[in-house]
C-alpha cells in the first residue's frame, strides 16, 4: 500500500470512482499549481464497479457517454464491470495519477477549521485501522451516492423461516453455487435484468418477482454509427466525440418526447418488448409501469438477453405482492407459492450523502438537509466544499466532468487573486425563497430518492440556488457562470 509522503495538500479528492478520477484528471490538466491527493476507502479504483460482484454486472449506460470525454471508448456500448475497471485503470496510468492515489484510506470525518482555513480530515488505513489525519484547503467529495456498506432490503415477513440463502447483489458471496437451483430474484430494475440472463443458463429455473414493472429497452450491443466511422478510418478520438454527441442528442429527443407525448413513447417501448416476447405474452401486466417513461431510468437490455431467457423457458416473470417468506420459498398475495433454494433481493440501494463521512464546521455537525445547493456543486454556508452529484438520466460522467471543469476554473480564479476560501452565502433577498427538493419527484422518482429525499440539501426557486438535471442546459450555464456574483464570498 502506498503511504502519503506528507499529510497536507491543496485539494483532497474523496473517492477513486468515475467522479474522483474525472476530478483528478481535470485538476492535473487545468490547475498545475495545485497539489492534490485522492483518498479511496477500498483496495483499488472503480467505486461501484469494484463493489459489485454479482453475475453479469455491467453498465446500464452506454460507455461513450459514461466514459470520459478525453479517453475514447472502443468496446461495446454496454460494458462489463471488468471492462470499465480496465478502462479506468488505463486513464489512471496514462494520466500518471498513481502518485496521487492512496487506497484503503477510509475517511471517517472532515471538520472545517476556521482558524487554520482548511479541512481537517481523519480516518483509518487498511485492515489494521491505523489512524491518519491530514489537512486540505479544498475538500472535493466524489464518493458517489451509494451506501456501499448497507444496501436496501425491505423486511419481508417470515424471512427467518426461509431455509435457503437470501442474498443482496451488493454483498454477493464469491463461492455461491447456484447450479441446478431454483432462484427467485425480487426486483425489476437494471440489476435484476442483469443477474437473470447471466444466471439463467446454470440454474434449474430463475424467476423475476416484481411488485411493479420497469420500462426496458432491448438494443443491439453495438453502435452502428461508430462501426461505420471506424470502417472509413475516422480516428478513434473523433469517433468517440461524434458518437457521444449523437447519443446525447437522441437521449434529449426521447426525454422531451416522454414529457410531451408519454403515451406514444410508452406504446413504442412496449411494442419493442412485445417484438421479443410475442403477442401471447402478457406485456401489459409484466412490463407496463405505473409511471411515465423516464420518470425513472429506462433499463437497457443488451441484445434482448433477458427476453431470450424467458423465451427459452429458463427464466420467467411474476408480477405480484409478497405475502411472506416460507421455509421453501415465497408465498404471494395471490396464493401462489414460488419455490426457491436461493432468493436474491435486488431491491435497490440506500443513498448516502457524501459517502457517509461525518462533516462538521468548527466542530458543529453539518445537516445537509438544512442547506441549499449552489448550482448543484457547492452548498450554502460551506467553505471550500465541492460535491459531485451526476445526472440520473444522462450518464453520471457527463456532469462529473462539467463539475470538474467548473471547479478548476474557480480554483484558478482564486489562485490568480490570492484567495484561499470561497463560500456561497444566501443573499438577503434569498431568505424567504421557496425551497424545493434536490431532485423533484415529479420529474424523477425512483425509490432510493423517495426514501432519502429528507436527507438531501434543497434547491431554491431562483438562480444560482438551483440544480438542473438537464445536461444541455448545464453544458452552457456552468462554463459561463460568473465567479464574481453576489453569492460567492471569498476570503
UniProtKB/TrEMBL annotation:
Residue ranges occupied by any FAD/NAD(P)-binding domain in the UniProt entry: 10-231
SUPFAM superfamilies attached to this UniProt entry: FAD/NAD(P)-binding domain
Record key words, sorted: Monooxygenase, Oxidoreductase
InterPro entries reported for this sequence: FAD-binding_MO, FAD/NAD-bd_sf, FAD/NAD-binding_dom
Chain segments annotated as coiled-coil in the UniProt record: none
Listed GO MF terms: monooxygenase activity
Essential cofactor(s): FAD
Keyword match ATP-binding: no
Keyword Oxidoreductase: yes
One Pfam family named in its UniProt record: Pyr_redox_2
Family of this protein: Belongs to the FAD-binding monooxygenase family.
Name of the protein described by the UniProt record: Cation diffusion facilitator CzcD-associated flavoprotein CzcO
Source species: Umboniibacter marinipuniceus
Amino acid at each position: 500500500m502506498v503511504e502519503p509522503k506528507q499529510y497536507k495538500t491543496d485539494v483532497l479528492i474523496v473517492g477513486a470512482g468515475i467522479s474522483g478520477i474525472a476530478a483528478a484528471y481535470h485538476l492535473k490538466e487545468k490547475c498545475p499549481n495545485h497539489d492534490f491527493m485522492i483518498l479511496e476507502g477500498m483496495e483499488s479504483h472503480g467505486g461501484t464497479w469494484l463493489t459489485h460482484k454479482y453475475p453479469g454486472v455491467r453498465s446500464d449506460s452506454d460507455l461513450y457517454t459514461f466514459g470520459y470525454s478525453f479517453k475514447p471508448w472502443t468496446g461495446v456500448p454496454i460494458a462489463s464491470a471488468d471492462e470499465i475497471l480496465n478502462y479506468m485503470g488505463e486513464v489512471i496510468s496514462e494520466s500518471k495519477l498513481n502518485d496521487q492515489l492512496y487506497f484503503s484510506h477510509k475517511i471517517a470525518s472532515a471538520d472545517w477549521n476556521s482558524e487554520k482555513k482548511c479541512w481537517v480530515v481523519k480516518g483509518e488505513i487498511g485492515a489494521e485501522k491505523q489512524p491518519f489525519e491530514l489537512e486540505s484547503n479544498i475538500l472535493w467529495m466524489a464518493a458517489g451516492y451509494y451506501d456501499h456498506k448497507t444496501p436496501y432490503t425491505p423486511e419481508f415477513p417470515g424471512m427467518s423461516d426461509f431455509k435457503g440463502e437470501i442474498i443482496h447483489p451488493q454483498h454477493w458471496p464469491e463461492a455461491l453455487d447456484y447450479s441446478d437451483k431454483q432462484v427467485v430474484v425480487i426486483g425489476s430494475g437494471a440489476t435484476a435484468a442483469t443477474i437473470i440472463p447471466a444466471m439463467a443458463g446454470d440454474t434449474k429455473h430463475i424467476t423475476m418477482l416484481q411488485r411493479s414493472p420497469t420500462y426496458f429497452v432491448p438494443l443491439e450491443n453495438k453502435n452502428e454509427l461508430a462501426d461505420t466511422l471506424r470502417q472509413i478510418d475516422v480516428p478513434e478520438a473523433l469517433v468517440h466525440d461524434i458518437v457521444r454527441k449523437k447519443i446525447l442528442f437522441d437521449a434529449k429527443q426521447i426525454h422531451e418526447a416522454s414529457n410531451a407525448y408519454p403515451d406514444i413513447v410508452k406504446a413504442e417501448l412496449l411494442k419493442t418488448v412485445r417484438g421479443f416476447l410475442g403477442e401471447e405474452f402478457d406485456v401489459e401486466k409484466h412490463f407496463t409501469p405505473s409511471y411515465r417513461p423516464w420518470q425513472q431510468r429506462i433499463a437497457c437490455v443488451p441484445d434482448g438477453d433477458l427476453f431470450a431467457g424467458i423465451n427459452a423457458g429458463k427464466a420467467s416473470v411474476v408480477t405480484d405482492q409478497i405475502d411472506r417468506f416460507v421455509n421453501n420459498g415465497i408465498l404471494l398475495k395471490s396464493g401462489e407459492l414460488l419455490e426457491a433454494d436461493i432468493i436474491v433481493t435486488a431491491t435497490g440501494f440506500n443513498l448516502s450523502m457524501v459517502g457517509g463521512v461525518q462533516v462538521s464546521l468548527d466542530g458543529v455537525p453539518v445537516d445537509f438537509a438544512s442547506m441549499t445547493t449552489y448550482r448543484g456543486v457547492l452548498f450554502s454556508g460551506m467553505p471550500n466544499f465541492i460535491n459531485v452529484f451526476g445526472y440520473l438520466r444522462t450518464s453520471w460522467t457527463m456532469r462529473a466532468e462539467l463539475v470538474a471543469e467548473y471547479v478548476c476554473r474557480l480554483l484558478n480564479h482564486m489562485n490568480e487573486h490570492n484567495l484561499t476560501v470561497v463560500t456561497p452565502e444566501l443573499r438577503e433577498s434569498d431568505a424567504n425563497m421557496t425551497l424545493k427538493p434536490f431532485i423533484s419527484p415529479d420529474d424523477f422518482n425512483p425509490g432510493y430518492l423517495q426514501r432519502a429525499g429528507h436527507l438531501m440539501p434543497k434547491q431554491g426557486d431562483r438562480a444560482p440556488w438551483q440544480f438542473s438535471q438537464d445536461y444541455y442546459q448545464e453544458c452552457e450555464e456552468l462554463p459561463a457562470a460568473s465567479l464574481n456574483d453576489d453569492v460567492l464570498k471569498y476570503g
